[in-house]
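Q: What residues go here?
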């Protein structure tokens, strides 16, 4: 009977460790999803940059060369 009680006392600690581990996995998955979302948005924005007209470029204070340089960057670079 004592052995059963010892096992029951150990289970909550194992469960807590398992829950803590799953929390880390959840944070990792969340961080990965946010990174993938940022990359997807950045890729879309860079595909759209060449469509900006001269008037809009003047408004935002960029030259065509600066815009093209930004558009040519890979999506993972800031």
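A:
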């Amino acid at each position: 009977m004592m052995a059963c009680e010892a096992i029951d006392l150990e289970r909550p600690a194992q469960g807590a460790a398992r829950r803590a581990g799953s929390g880390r996995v959840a944070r990792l998955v969340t961080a990965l999803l946010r990174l993938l979302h940022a990359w997807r948005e950045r890729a879309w924005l860079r595909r759209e940059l060449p469509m900006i007209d001269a008037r809009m470029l003047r408004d935002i204070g960029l030259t065509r060369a600066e815009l093209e340089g930004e558009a040519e960057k890979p999506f993972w670079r800031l």
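A: Context that may help when evaluating the design: The chain has a mean pLDDT of 85. Residues 2-48 form the longest helix (47 residues).
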